[in-house]
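Deliverable D5.2: sample structural annotation.
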Amino acid sequence: MNSEQSSRIRDSVYVIGAGFSAGLEYPLTKTLLVEVWQKLPEESRNRLQRIIEFHHPGFRPTRTTSFPGIEQLLTQIAVNLEFFDFSRPTEGNLKKEDLILAREDLLFRIALWFHSLYERAANISWLARFTERLRSENAGIVSFNWDLILDQQLVGGQLSAQSYGLEAELGTGPLLLKPHGSLNWYEAPVVEHVPPEKRLTIFPATDEDKAIEAFLFPRQIDSKVGRRYTPLIIPPTYLKNFNRPIFKQLWNRCTDMLSTPKRLVFLGYSLPPEDLHAHFIFRCAFHNQLGGRIRDAHNRYDPTGQADVVIVNPDQEAARRIEAVAGPEICCTWIPKRVQDWI
C-alpha cells in the first residue's frame, strides 16, 4: 500500500439490520406501526387515524392487514406537508400542526418503547457471545438500527466520539458507525440541563448545525415540566434527509470502511429496495474494493481486493438484493438462518 489511508480500516466488518435486533425481541420495521399503535395515547391515535384514513380509505385499526408500512406512512405525511399549500386555499379541518404533531409523537413513542426493551434485550445470551467476537476481531460495525444494545455491550460507560467514528483518528478498538442516528444522540441545546457527567459531545457545532451530544448510558430524557425530546434519528421514510454535517461524516466513514474489509458480513440486513442512499453507498464500496478508494480528482488508493461477503438472513430476496449491488465480480455466500441461530 502507498499510504496508511489505503490500508484496511478493519479486517472484519459487520452490517447490522432489523433482523439482528429482532433476535433481541425488537420489532421489525414492517410490523412497527401495528405493534406501537396501542402504546400511543388516545389523542395521538385519533389524530394519526384521521391521517391514515385519508391516505388509506380502507384502514381499520382493528384489522392489522389494513395498516400501511411505517415508511410509507411517514413518507405520505412528508409529501402531505410539502404539498399542503398547493392543494387547498386554506387549512380546513386537518392542519399542518396536526401532521407535525402526529409524526413527532409517533417517533417519540417508538423511542420510548425501544428504551423500555433495552434491559431485557441486554441479557439475551447470544448477544454476549457476539460482542466478544466483535472485540476479538477488532471489528467494524455499520448499524442501521437506532437501539443502544451494541453501544453499551461494546464500550458501556467508556463511550466516546471515537466509538462512533466521529473523531479524526479511528483508533484500534471496535468501531460502531450508525448512519441512521441513535436513541442516545441529541442536539446540545436539548440536553443542556442534563448533568454534564451523564453526557458528552460527540460532534462539535459547525456553521451549519448545533453540536451533538450523547448520553453515556441508555435513558430517555425525563422532563419535570412535560417536555418531549426526540433523539437524533433518521425516520424510516422513502425521502430520508442526511444533510446534517454529522451524517455526512458518518456516511463517508461507512464508505471507507466498507471499501476495504477482508470479510464483510450482513446480519439481518435486507437492503430495502426503497433505501436508495444505502444502495448507492454499498455500490460505491463494492466498486472501491476492486478499483480502490478515491484519493483525489485524478487518483485512487491501491485496492484492497474483494471482500469475502457473507449474508445471514432467512429472506432470499434480501440476499439477492445485496448480491445484485455487489455485482458479479464479488463472491457472496448466503446463509438462510436467523442471526441468533447463526451466532
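Annotation notes: The radius of gyration is 21 Å. The mean pLDDT is 91.
The annotation will be released with the project's public dataset once the embargo ends.
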